[in-house]
Amino acid sequence: MNSQNLELMVKIFDAFKEIILGGAGGIVAYLFDFQRQKKALQDIPFSFSAMFINMCIGAFVAYTLGSFIDHSVSGRDGYIGLIGVTSYAILGIVESRFAKIIIDRILGGGDGK
């Protein structure tokens, strides 16, 4: 196996690991929210499809943001898992701020704030 193939295998493994950690974080977020609502006596049914959607969102956000965390950072895997847990909050921030920042940068107006 040459070094290019080995590098590719390492990159695929890293991406897979980020997706799995983020997806697990998404599942934890769903289960936590479900349990909290049950304790508040809200009669909501458990939904595997909603849990799967949470898992996919957590995996996507963790994979996307994981690339910004250097591999030498201590606890990187834990951070990626927590990104999966907090993916809805992160998407809310991105949705409210990121489009304006990008439009400002592309159109050359403002400082992105």
What does this structure look like?
The chain has one domain. It is built from four helices and no strands. It has helices spanning 3-39, 48-66, 76-85, 87-107. Helix 1 (3-39) packs across helix 3, helix 2 packs across helix 3 and helix 2 crosses helix 4. The relative contact order is 0.15.
List the helices and strands and how they pair.
Blueprint: H1 3-39, H2 48-66, H3 76-85, H4 87-107
Helix content: over 70%
Order of helices and strands: HHHH
Question: Which ranges are low-confidence, i.e. pLDDT below 50, for 5 or more consecutive residues?
Answer: none
Number of strands: 0
Measured by DSSP, the beta-strand proportion falls in: under 5%
Task: Please give the count of helices.
Answer: 4
What is the oligomer described by this structure? Answer: single chain
Biggest sheet details: none
How does the helix and strand content classify structurally? Answer: mainly alpha
Principal-axis shape: flat
Measured between the Cα atoms of the first and last residue, the distance is 49 Å
Q: Please give the radius of gyration in angstroms.
A: 18 Å
Estimate the mean pLDDT confidence: 89
Could you say how many structural domains there are in total?
1
Would you summarize the structure shown here?
By secondary structure, this protein is mainly α. Helix content is 77%, strand content 0%.
Characteristic key phrases:
113 residues, 4 helices, mainly alpha, single chain
